[in-house]
Structures are given as C-alpha cells and as structure tokens.
Amino acid sequence: MTRSHIARRSTKITTGAAAAVLAVAVLAGCGEGGSATGKTGTDGKRSASTDAEGSAKGGSDPGASGGPGPSPSADPDKGGDAYDFTPSPEEVPKNVAQARELTRNASLEPADWTPGMVKHEPYETAGTWPALADSCVWSRGRLPGHILDSYGRRIDVPAKDGKGRMQGSVTVTVHRTVKDADREMKDTVQESFRCPGQELGGGQRLDGLMSMHLDQKDVKNADATLFEAGKFTGPGSGGKQEYVWTKSRIGTVTTAVAVKGAEGYGTSDLIRLAAEGGAKVLYRVEKELT
C-alpha cells in the first residue's frame, strides 16, 4: 500500500510491518471481525502520555457490541472511494462546553471497546496536555490556547489464563480550527523522529518508535491518519512488549488509540484491538459532527 511518509532509520524496526497492517485494518473501518480478546494499551504520545498519569505524565452505536459499524459517510456503492465527510457547521464545537460534550460522547467505555475490558486506575484524564521535552521525557501541563478540550480514558484487558494485563487508552481532542488539528498530526510524527526512545513516567518507556502518515487516498474513515509502532517496557510488563498507536483527524477533532502489549499476546492481538477501538471512536466523532 502507498505511504506518504515513512520514518527510516539505520536500525531495522520489526514493528514497522505491524504498523502498516494496523493502518490497513483501521482504514478498512473494521476491528478484524469481533472482539480482540486481551489487548489494550495506553495512548502514547499526545495520549500515551496518559500512561504517566500517576507520575507527571450518545445514542446507540452499531459497533458497541461487535465489530465497529460503517462510517456514517460511507457509501456502500462507493466501496473503494477515499473518505468524504463534511462536518455540519452547527455541530462543530465553538466553545469549551460544547467541546467537552463531544469528547465525552465520542470516547469509549470498556464494554464499548471490547467485552471483558475494565477501567484502569486512574481511568480519566481531562483538562491537561502532554509535552515532550528535549530530554525525550513526557510531562503534563495546561491545555494550549488552540485546544478547547482533551479527554482520555485508560482501559485494560485484565490478566488471565497465564497472560499479562494489557493496557489501552483512547483520547479525543477538540481544536479551535482545522489548521490547529492538522498541525498536531504533523507535530506528532516529528516527535518520533526526534525521540525514538521516550520516557512516559512511572518507569514506563517506549523504544524503537517509527511513525508514518497514511496516503490520503487510502484513508477510509478520517481526514488524515498516522500510525506508530515500537517497544514498550514498564512495571509488570514482563520485559519488552509490542506497542502500537494510531492518531486520526476529522475536521477539528483528533482521536488517539494506543495498545501496549503484555506476556502471552502477539502483535496481531494489538492490531485487532487498536483497529477496533480506532474505528469505533471515529464513528462516534462523525455522529457528533453530523
């Protein structure tokens, strides 16, 4: 598949292939058919910094109980066409109160993502924004002036049957303008170029990060989408685990879904969960903007 921007480094990163597969799955608007048992990750970067939370760092949904439903703008007679959706001007948030309503309505509860998932502690992150220092360490501070609201939830698949606890997160952010939201997308990729290794706080770390933008003609459920993959280590991780993260934009709204691996789970498990969660939250954003 065509990709517009791919991070190239001298060290081979095996998770690059996983990111490409994840991109295809999410853009197809499906979570690989059903529940992704045992997956979840904290939202990396703009949302993955939710991982360091303890240390600095609306209506019915056709996808709520099974695979994510089709995008409201999807035309079954135009299966191969690129994304084509225009938010209703009346529904685009103009102030903080409207933005908060959208971010809460669009976010996922544990059962919305995949049955069996549970709330992480802490569960919610609101009203703050992550920043990546020159030292490649994440911290949290006030929301920048160009952001009306940002809201994140951390959702896990509990440890069971000899498998570790998977950590996941979903973050929805409303910007004041499309230009602001687009700049966030571009800045995010540059962060992985600048810091292929990042400290999330609380003893958590990402290494070997590789990010890429998807070619617009391949994007099926957002105005723009990017993906990142790497390795995660942290308390209770049982060593290095796979990590995948996706960020998308619809108008002034960006969404981010991250999945951190655990013992007993393979890359395909992370891909299925991230694809499912990513498609569902984008579907909900469209509903809020329609």
Concise summary:
With 290 residues, this protein is an alpha+beta fold. It has helices spanning 15-27, 45-48, 96-106, 110-113, 178-194, 267-289; strands at 3-6, 118-126, 128-132, 138-142, 147-157, 166-175, 198-201, 204-214, 224-233, 241-250, 253-260.
Number of strands: 11
CATH-defined superfamily: PknH-like extracellular domain
CATH level 3 topology: Protein Transport Mog1p, Chain A
CATH architectural grouping: 3-Layer(aba) Sandwich
Order of helices and strands: EHHHHEEEEEHEEEEEH
Number of helices: 6
Number of domains: 1
Cα-atom radius of gyration: 17 Å
Average pLDDT number: 79
Task: Please describe the biggest sheet, giving its number of strands, its sense, and whether it closes into a barrel.
Answer: 9 strands, antiparallel
Write the layout of secondary structure elements.
Elements: E1 3-6, H1 15-27, H2 45-48, H3 96-106, H4 110-113, E2 118-126, E3 128-132, E4 138-142, E5 147-157, E6 166-175, H5 178-194, E7 198-201, E8 204-214, E9 224-233, E10 241-250, E11 253-260, H6 267-289
Antiparallel strand pairs: 1-8, 2-5, 3-4, 5-6, 6-11, 7-8, 8-9, 9-10, 10-11
